[in-house]
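Quick check before the chapter quiz. The format below is the same one you will see on the exam, so make sure you can read both the input and the output lines.
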Amino acid sequence: MQVSRRPAWQALAALLAFASYAGAFDCSAPQISINSQQDATALGDCGGAIDGNITLGSDASGEIVFKNLNENFRGSIVAQDNDRLTRLTLKGDSSIQTLFLQNLRALARLSFSDVSSLGGILIFKDLPALTDVDLSSLQNASGVQLQSLPSLHTLLLDPNGLAVDGNLNVQDIGADTMDALLETGSPKENVSIAGIPRVKQLSYSLESAGDISIAGDGALNLTLQRPPGTRDDSACTIASLTVSGLLALRRSRSDGASISNLTIGAFTVRSNAFEALDLDVDGLARLYVLDNEHLSTLSVPPRAGDFSWREIIITGNPKLRLNSSAAPPKPTPTTANLAPTWVWPRRDVQTMVFEGPFDNSFFKPFVDLGKGSKRPKVLQRFFVSSTLGQDEFDCSALDDLRKAGVLQGEYSCQHQTVPGKSDAGRILHSVKFLMLCLAFTIFAMLA
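Here is the expected output.
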């Protein structure tokens, strides 16, 4: 049997070439450029700590696999503006800071299945060919941005969910589920979700957060719930919640009961397809119900009269017909949660705007609160535009409140305004001043 052997000079040349290559690769550099699989392999052979950031260059192509980084690597991985990279794989858990991938036109698969945490943020942006992402061990990240991933069909996350400590931004992705991102606990700061046409059912776990905006395409069913294991009596405060393009909106615990101790600063309900809206919350300062074509009922809890209201704007809901009450009865076991009426605020409000098929009976309990100094006032703006028409809506009672100083600031009823109490006072003061000036002028002329 013959054994083929390379000449000694060839073996020596290969060894010298590898030594030269390894020596040229600086494992301690603050920025480490990876342009080939050979670079990625050499990085895994560094042996010591790697604190620099890894940048995949424009020459990187095909599949790049990182091995043996493990706890040695504590930097970020960045890849952008590359048309040749098709697959990116990292084997072994690493203390990655930020994972930033943008404008990689050919990238189809990403597998970081052993990575359990990100000290920074995860950004996948403008990846048109990406179909499969495996982050099945990732448990937490400081922030997540998924944007313009139209081909994404498979998004594998930890079965127990991904905890996001910062912002979550999801826009224009092709995945058909996002439950692992949202079911086990919401991000602590701001959330923006839009452009998810293949997602039909979305469960969002409510925890105290900043601004939350969720937009569907008219077929999205959204359920707001408590995270598993969370006490229902724990307080939850959301700075603002905006929902649009929803087919249905539900709020419940896992056992079907209503959520309690939920306070929302501003709640915007815009251009949805559902017919009923239940505002079963414990606190609300601003409410905007705008352009919901099919909305016919709106229910509030009896305690809504004591909310610290600032703005109430209800416009563009052609089927919404409301009754109202100024002092609902005390809650009973059967009426403790919701009242099928609008409850008028019992404190001063900055703004009230009502446009739609409202009749005089809706405003009567508000008018009947009287004109005394202790009744609640509207301080900045009060607009009423009933689509029932001029002949079916009488503004005289509201005009009287305006003249009595109850409706201050800007005022309009059926597109007409009348002077308020302060306006009349200013007019009288101006007339008296002009008369005084005229008297002084005449006196001067006679002298």
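If your answer matched, good. Helices lie at 8-24, 37-44, 179-182, 360-367, 396-403, 421-446.
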